[in-house]
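Lay summary. Proteins are chains of building blocks that fold into shapes, and those shapes determine what they do. In this project we predict the shape from the chain. Here is one chain we studied, written as its sequence of building blocks.
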Amino acid sequence: MKLQKGEKLLFIGDSVTDCERAKPEGEGLPGSLGNGYVSFLDGLLQAVYPELEARVVNKGINGHTVRDLKSRWQEDVLDQKPDWLAVMIGINDVWRQYDTPFITDGHVSIEEYDKTLRKLVTDAQSSVKQIVLLTPFYLEPNEKDPMRNTMDEYGHIVKKIADEEGCLFIDTQAAFNRVMENLYPAALAWDRVHPSTAGHMILARSFLNEIGFDWNRT
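And here is the predicted shape, written in a compact code that computers can read:
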């Protein structure tokens, strides 16, 4: 297990992270972390590694893009002083290009995405022990589908930044692809973006695997 006792894990992103978490601070009372993957992995950490006393914080906000993260980075990340920072952003950066194609001022180009995400990562590196970057995803098995293809391109940017900046990397698209070999996409996300309980468990499992969670621990 890569986590040490008493460390603070902060998750930031869009609606997939938010999941009705408490505002403004996503931690504390039951339900404060929302009803998605952040809550699931927190529960598993408490149940299997109670001695770690891990503190988990959810800072996801519905509809946000990397541009929105930039505007709240100081308050929602740097001022929080986390030991671990997990960032999953990019779904809306891509989605707005397809569901609102004519409202171009809300589109985040891949160049802006690359530049902004990299700046956010480098700004946090001096104060955060470990950064985990998770790719955006789209639950469409056809890689030639236009939105799926664009989402993969943004995912490649996440991988590139993780490699170059020494971050841990989680390919969420690959994790979903494995399950989609047996399950129809709608079983994991009705709109191919917002996960079901099973979809959120895939995200939680992927994160916990990356940090060395022992699923056989008793």
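What the prediction tells us: The chain has eight helices and five strands.
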